[in-house]
Amino acid sequence: MTDLKGTARPTTGPESFAGRWEAWHSRHEAIIGDRHGFLAITNIHWLDAEPRRFGDAPGAWCSGADGVRVELGEDEHLMVEGEERGGTYRLGVIPERASRFAYWGENAVEVAKRGGHDLIRPRHPSNPLRLAYAGTPAYEPDERWAVSGRYRPFPAPRPTTVGAAVEGLEHVYNAVGEVEFTLDGRPLRLTAFPGPHKGELLVLFTDTTSGVTTYAANRSLVLDPGPDGSVVLDFNRAVNLPCAYTDLATCPLPPAENRLPVPIEAGERIPRERLDPAVGQTPVPPVPITRAAP
């Protein structure tokens, strides 16, 4: 096997295609299993103007025109950005799709805005869903699924409304262009959104394996186009979104045009947590999930 410069590359070992994939996937697994990652979420609480207490976080929480506020009791404190906070503390207006974190003991609480609504999601490292996590099944890496393509940016970003894992919730993303590629002689394209880092793209998609061997609602892939628009879609690195593991996520669904009519037999498969729902039991008494009206 040779690289683009004609230099021989090993087919096994850490520098091989499979070895590089294994190293990448190990880093990705560590993020999934992080002590305050999404597997640690114990509930999702939608906030409104009435201060309310919940069973898995300190304080009484509410939301209004001035943002999110928490009223902490005499013996309650939160660490926010390295400073201890007590009494009435205002976290302010949270931008859409942003999050702030506060901590108490070994636990954390995420304060976020999704679909125009403020929420909190407590995160407990002791959550059974996290403790039982044993890795995500994935297809064996195969260079066939590293497909060359072309990124074609739009003249201007296009606001695109997509559904969400939470019923009745919608997300609006700015689509920045399309990625065109060919698979088994069939021309295909995917609408792309801004990626997690500058210059990167994010595509959300389903394919004909969705709901069969891969998670039904969505998978995602991060792309890094070159200055000339050339890009490699390495579907071996297609990953599940948090909603594949927990019902306490607000993940976006792919736009309709990103439902690929072909099987992508690469990347992460259906998580064990979906195959065995008992793994996802929470350690706290059930708290009703409520959401403020739009």
- Which regions contain 5 or more consecutive residues with pLDDT less than 50? 1-10, 280-294
Largest sheet: 6 strands, antiparallel
What's the average pLDDT?
90
Spatial extent as radius of gyration: 21 Å
SSE series: HEEEEEEEEEEHEEEEEEH
Helical amount? under 10%
How is this structure best described in words?
The chain has 294 residues and is mainly beta. It has 2 domains: 38-133, no CATH class; 137-270, no CATH class. Helices cover 8% and strands 36% of the residues. The protein has 3 helices and 16 strands. Strands 15-14-13-12-11-16 form a 6-stranded antiparallel sheet, with no helix packed on it. β11 and β12 form a beta hairpin. It is globular and about 65 Å long. The termini are far apart. 32% of the residues are buried.
List keywords for this structure.
single chain; 294 residues; mainly beta; six-stranded antiparallel sheet; four-stranded antiparallel sheet; 16 strands; 36% strand; globular; disordered N terminus; disordered C terminus
Topology:
Blueprint: H1 17-32, E1 45-46, E2 52-54, E3 57-64, E4 67-71, E5 78-80, E6 83-85, E7 88-92, E8 99-104, E9 107-114, E10 117-123, H2 128-131, E11 146-163, E12 170-183, E13 186-194, E14 201-205, E15 219-223, E16 230-234, H3 272-275
Antiparallel strand pairs: 1-10, 2-3, 3-4, 4-7, 5-6, 8-9, 9-10, 11-12, 11-16, 12-13, 13-14, 14-15
Short description:
The protein is mostly beta strands and 294 residues long. It is built from 3 helices and 16 strands. It has helices at residues 17-32, 128-131, 272-275, and strands spanning 45-46, 52-54, 57-64, 67-71, 78-80, 83-85, 88-92, 99-104, 107-114, 117-123, 146-163, 170-183, 186-194, 201-205, 219-223, 230-234.
